[in-house]
Amino acid sequence: MKKILFSGLLLLMALRLFAQSTYSDTQVNLSSETDLQSYQLSEDQQAYEAVILKDKRIIEHYFEGQQLTSLKTIHKLIQINSDAGIEKYNKIYVPMSVGRSLRHLKVRAISPDGKITNIQRENIKELNNVEGFQNVKIFAIEGLEVGGKAEYLYTVKSPFEPFGRETVQAGVPILKSTIELVHPKQWKFKYKSYNGLADAQFRLIAQNQKVIGLTQKDIPAFEEEEYSLEDATYMRFEHKMASNGGYEQNIFSWLNLMKRMTENCSSPKTAKVAKKYVKDILSQNLSDEEKIIVLEEKIKSTIRLEKGGTQALSDPKSIVENGVGNVRGLSILYMYCFEALGLKAHLVYGCNRYDGEMDPTFATVTSIGDMFFYFPKYQKYLLPEHYHMRYGVVHTGLMNTNAIFVSYFIESGKVNYRTFDFKKLEALSADLNQIGVRASIDFEENLALPKVILEDYAQGYRAFSYRAVLKNADVDFREKFMKDVMLSAFENFEVLSTDVEGEDMSLSTDPANFLKLKMKYTTPELVERAGNEYLIAVGKVIGRQSELYQEKERQHEIVMSTIQKYRHEITINIPEGYQLEGLEEIKNKNVITVNGREVAYFISDYQLEGSSLLITVDEVYKDISFPKENYDEFRGVINSAANFNKLTLIMSKKEEKVN
């Protein structure tokens, strides 16, 4: 979605065409010798593989003749503290999409004793068509040493880019970061800082250009943590053009963006393509909701999704003919098919919560990552890009996020915007996202090699993923997949039989539907004989569990991939004349409480009735996120499952009663 072309942009602006010299060209000097020697690192900073001493960025918009042009300058000075730092910073990657060129380039390595090695332009390599979108220039910084510094500066020239996002934090500390936004003084730009980054302020007028800037010192290293939003929590700076000094004062408002983006989906020739494509669907006696389901299955079963921006991948006619298309092209095909089938849908734009957020107060295409559909009559969604899912709910990255719902209509082959509204995308209930195993362990034939009958069941998102994997799996891959899922805690085993229930992809239209993997197996790793006793590693039956460790203080809020409910039931059929010891080790309870409300818990317990022991495990997460202040409790719940995984019971002969 970030590749959206705003056709007609220049026509919307009453541009004042005059030549301008560039501010950026005056800011391309590398650090002076005095500057290089002025930095002192603390012990904590020296412990990192590197420290970014200076991070300066200039985004400039100007006229080159009568052509609107953008420049982006990146200048970094980096202290290298270890071999890992050399490995991390000895190569620089510069994205070079269509229309971009390298205007300035200065690269050097500075040894601990001050010796300078300049890198020549001839050492630059280029990779073409990376991920189907752009070229990338790569230059190596040779001569880096521990205790030395790396410094590079480059300026990329490109066609005018009215939007931008600068992510400031890194995996190492930054002593000083500066961002300058430069544009003709009669223009207006809007900008906003996120996640604790300093606000930008007007700085000066230089060469008939307005300079907006911000400076932030002592930016801490970004700590990657499990169960966090990661990229979305980096400090960042968003900016966009608001006015060129003419009559329109808010060019890129959400209203203008939605209108333009929706109407850019117009493809009058596709109306004929769509009518032909859905002819077989119309010939069936289907309800409207059945039409949606059949259409989605037809497209996802016959058309392959591929990244890239070529005309063939974006044109619905070519997509149908060639059986391959990109997200935008497929979305347009869906829109015209809905029209041909008489279906009313809303176009929805969303942002994966792991990438960022859609801010109702700051409109920008940089926050739009998903394009999908909503059917108001049924209150369900269809996601063209996510082939493992079917009509029903949004994917986990969209849960609990803001999205824009656009009402549109097609008339005379043209897509017309009607209205838009921000709405919150709800999370799938834990009651529709149940996961677990049911197992029975039988010792009748061999005390050292019991037979296990296992059922691994799942609803919701896990069922969606498993069905998609099984849909096109051959016999060998299917067998491997089931072993990986159900026998992850064992290395040595014999599978006696397998079966799958509920694997048809059509069942994914209702998250309540279960998928069940069934298996009978034996493994010598489940029971270990110790003299006259048998040690039963019963916890391994639920599969390998992750453990959560973190020595440093928690930095980010705790975020779950989804709301879910685990329920495991293990039955041990105790052979006649034997008993089980260590049952009290089964019992465990850990709870997370926020504002007096129980939001997550782990409870394991047992019931012994005659020769049958039933072990139950309930691990439930009612919310999608928790405050970082509850991290210790959260870790206790997560690690309870890992501790259960290590549970071992002792089976021994009953003592004979003496009369």
From TrEMBL:
Residues 1-19 form the signal peptide. Transmembrane segments: none annotated. Residues 72-222 form the DUF3857 domain. This is DUF3857 domain-containing protein. Keywords: Signal. It comes from the Bacteria.
